[in-house]
Amino acid sequence: MGQLNNRNVIVGITGGIAAYKAAQLVRELQDLGAEVRVVMTRSATEFITPMTLQALSGNPVHLDLLDSAAEAAMGHIELARWADLVCVAPATADFLARLCAGRADDLLCSLCLATGAPLLLAPAMNQGMWRDPATAANITLLRERGVALVGPADGSQACGDIGPGRMEEPAVIAARVAASFESRLLDNYRAVVTAGPTREALDPVRFISNHSSGKMGFAIADACASAGAVTTLISGPVRLPTPNRVKRVDVISALEMYEAAQAAARDCDIFIACAAVSDYRPARPEPQKIKKNGDSMQLEMVRNPDIVAAVAERDNRPFMVGFAAETNHMESHARDKMRRKNLDLIVANDVSRADAGFDGDNNAATLFWPGGKREFALTSKTQLARRLVEVIAQQVDLAGSQEPTP
Fold it and tell me: Which of 58, 172, 352, 406 could crosslink 327 through cysteines, CB 3.0-4.6 Å?
């Protein structure tokens, strides 16, 4: 079950004795890959402390609708937009009634009204309250509005009664949250993407580099995360914001990228090498700024390690995707590189085109794999990245050698 990788889940907690189970629910959701934020009613804090939920979720707990610091940025609206799903556990009889009435006098009710995300409620109350006609009418109305419920379960209750009204166990609720989402192309997979240029120092103020902007690699990392993959982005020096739900590792030189790639490759299923890595570096960078001396300067260069080939040689190698930036004979050069570097798929593009290439927002590409080929016309790098990930997912599935990470 990995549908929660890169999903944003809000756990709402209301004031019932079952609130103590919310701590385990937060943990269960995180174990399935979700990013969790917690919203508590004031009465919920009588049963479990916000500090506990903050420590478990790793995020501040939200309590008040009229929090001046949060509401300066319209905090409840920001939460409503952030959520992919809102799960209220426990959902007391009072909360169900207030939600039916459209009340917006606390943060949790306001959030539930404002969000376009699905609502999943885990009712918890005394068995008599659950059986009461008013509660039954509220449940019917909520279901008619498209609100989903999980539970309640039958059993012993804190008051000593036995019957329906116990909140479902956290593992059951978490499984229901996961089942609320459709599976994505890369659910349960771990992807590593390299992007951008590398810089090879000549001295403390000068370096050798290339024109790579990193835009294509960043778009691919974003597409991988959107497809459900746990994504690590290893980036050379660029000025681009980190895509949402992507772990970023910044490097400068080819040697630094090599070390980062080797470390990340130990725990990945798909390795996408989009970075424009310098093939050579100065043999002996000068410790002080080089001064002008004569009309020419000789520079000895040494070969950098081949990052893609090194990862492809690992035991239990990931599915390998490389890039080929070509100016002529694109297919023959790309297929030759694919064979030499033991790649499963290679993405080739013509960098001599004036309407595409390193620094632009658009690109065109042709994908090659053993026995196959697919061309993509000029489009935005964002759209191209999504199409590339679709093909990569298909080829990973056809390869049959890559099992999803548990």
Answer: 352
